[in-house]
Design a protein that fits this description.
The chain is α+β, with helices and mostly antiparallel strands. 26% of the residues lie in helices and 31% in strands. The strands form four sheets. It has a six-stranded antiparallel beta sheet. Strands 5-6-4-9 form a four-stranded antiparallel beta sheet, covered by helices on one side. The longest helix is centred in the N-terminal third of the chain and has 17 residues. The chain is globular.
Length: 262
């Protein structure tokens, strides 16, 4: 396990210890462990640790197709879960769409404002006049009772039934190659976003940049292959792989960038 932990960052250590605890719990009780919603980086850590045991398997579910946030079941290898064992439901938000259009930050902020931890709800999907979000069943009644407005807009929640389609996620990633002098966060962000190094550092210092869904305020933070970078106002980028160095000793990067919706 020690050699595995070395591949993760120091500030991920508390989560790693939590995952090891889940693993031991399943091994001791021979019963599955259901997590809250986890982001892709957290799920990668869970899978990396649990796959070291031949007696355990990991299953994921977010209900939405191509869900970013999913719950996980860590279970004995003989276990085969049904969808309902992930204890997820999806709510639809009804509101007067003629007068206002809700945005993702509006919904996210309102869910957090009623005392929910981010791990208790999954993806939030929006169209021009529809909002749906996934949440754990244990908090469903609480959310229905307490989420009665978003900003100044009165809202009504309904559970999405089997006859109603879930909102699809129509993301498109475009890959490009870049050369950078180092893997520092400020350097890579400035290059990919085509902004000055000073602007890049200002965004980072202001807490507007996340790496793997965690805010990073250190401009010299070292990026690695597989990291997802999101900067407010500049979208989301993924460091796919490094491709060696140029004759001038710059690093070649293959980067995917999520196309911004117009």
């Amino acid at each position: 396990m020690e050699h595995l932990i070395q591949h993760f960052r120091k500030d991920e250590q508390p989560f790693i210890e939590q995952v090891v605890g889940w693993q031991r719990e399943v091994e001791d009780r021979y019963a599955p462990k259901l997590t809250d919603f986890l982001d892709p980086r957290q799920r990668f850590i869970v899978e990396s640790i649990v796959k070291q045991s031949e007696d355990l398997k990991v299953f994921t579910e977010g209900l939405f197709e191509n869900a970013e946030r999913k719950r996980m079941l860590i279970a004995p290898s003989y276990f085969e879960p049904a969808e309902e064992e992930f204890q997820i439901t999806i709510y639809s938000i009804h509101y007067p769409t003629k007068f206002v259009q809700l945005r993702h930050p509006d919904v996210l902020g309102s869910l957090l404002s009623i005392g929910l931890d981010r791990s208790k709800f999954g993806d939030i999907r929006l169209t021009e006049n529809t909002v749906q979000f996934a949440l754990t069943m244990e908090i469903a009644d609480y959310v229905r009772a307490h989420l009665t407005s978003i900003g100044k807009v009165k809202v009504h929640l309904e559970e999405v039934d089997a006859t109603t389609p879930y909102i699809q996620n129509e993301e498109k990633w475009v890959e490009n190659s870049y050369t950078v002098s180092s893997m520092r966060l400020d350097v890579v962000l400035a290059t990919i976003a085509n902004i000055s190094r000073q602007k890049s550092q200002s965004l980072i210092n202001a807490g507007k940049v996340k790496v793997n869904w965690t805010v990073r305020e250190a401009v010299a933070f070292e990026l690695q292959e597989g990291d997802i970078v999101s900067a407010r106002g500049f979208g989301r980028m993924k460091v796919i792989m490094t491709e060696g160095r140029t004759k001038k000793d710059k690093i070649r990067l293959q980067v995917g960038r999520l196309e911004q919706k117009t």
